[in-house]
């Protein structure tokens, strides 16, 4: 069985078991794997006016390009991601959320270089807080100890000054 994760897409939040526990971030960044599968899925619509409020399914598959962020809910999931000891507070903007989180650049690298240097589409951050930009149904939680962001979903970002 995999880790418990919470997946944010542009329109939904889904929580369930991931299919992989080994080298989760490497598996997630594998360009040959285009989808993400969850089991024991509980989901709900982010739109407060949606007619489909919540749902449950034994499994769900969705394209990784639809993932905005993944909250690594379980301690085992959090421990599977290596973060550098240096943490710099940043603000990242998506279509639905402003996310304030610690980014973890290596050495003296400025935060502004991270998307150019870190390979793959997914990048981990820590101590994240999500702030809705548009009307959004109440989230199960608005913070995450370790959040993995899809760089393709970030409109822009900057260090917090």
Describe the 3D structure.
There is one protein chain. With 161 residues, the chain is mainly beta. The protein has one domain. It is 9% helix and 45% strand. It has a 10-stranded antiparallel sheet with strand order 4-3-2-1-5-9-8-7-6-10. A hairpin with a 3-residue loop joins strand 1 and strand 2. It starts with a strand and ends with a strand. The model has no long low-confidence stretch (mean pLDDT 93).
Can you lay out the helices and strands and say which pair or pack?
Blueprint: E1 4-8, E2 12-18, H1 24-28, E3 35-45, E4 54-63, E5 69-72, H2 75-79, E6 88-93, E7 97-103, H3 114-117, E8 122-132, E9 143-150, E10 156-159
Antiparallel strand pairs: 1-2, 1-5, 2-3, 3-4, 5-9, 6-7, 6-10, 7-8, 8-9
What order do the SSEs take from the amino end to the carboxyl end, as H and E? EEHEEEHEEHEEE
| Tally of individual helices | 3
Read across the widest sheet, the strand sequence of neighbours is: 4-3-2-1-5-9-8-7-6-10
Q: How many independent structural domains? A: 1
Mean pLDDT reading: 93
Helix content: under 10%
Question: Which secondary-structure class do the elements indicate?
Answer: mainly beta
Query: What form results from the Cα inertia axes?
Result: globular
List segments where confidence is low: pLDDT < 50 over at least 5 consecutive residues.
none
Largest sheet: 10 strands, antiparallel
Strand content is over 45%
Radius of gyration, Cα only, in angstroms? 15 Å
Count of extended strands: 10
Oligomeric state of this protein: single chain
- The span between the termini is 41 Å
């Amino acid at each position: 069985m995999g880790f418990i994760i919470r997946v944010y897409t542009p329109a939904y939040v889904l929580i369930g078991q991931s299919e992989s526990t080994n080298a989760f971030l490497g598996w997630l960044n594998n360009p040959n794997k285009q989808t993400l599968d969850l089991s024991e899925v509980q989901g709900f619509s982010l739109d407060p006016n949606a007619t489909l409020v919540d749902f449950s399914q034994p499994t769900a598959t969705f394209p990784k390009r639809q993932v905005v962020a993944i909250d690594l809910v379980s301690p085992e999931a959090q421990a599977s991601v290596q973060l550098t000891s240096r943490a710099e507070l940043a603000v990242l903007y998506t279509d639905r959320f402003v996310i304030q989180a610690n980014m973890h650049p290596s050495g003296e690298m400025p935060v502004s270089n991270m998307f150019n240097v870190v390979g793959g589409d997914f990048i981990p951050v820590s101590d994240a807080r999500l702030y809705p930009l548009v009307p959004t149904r109440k989230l199960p939680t608005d913070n995450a100890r370790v959040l993995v962001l899809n760089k393709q979903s970030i409109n822009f970002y900057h260090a917090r000054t």
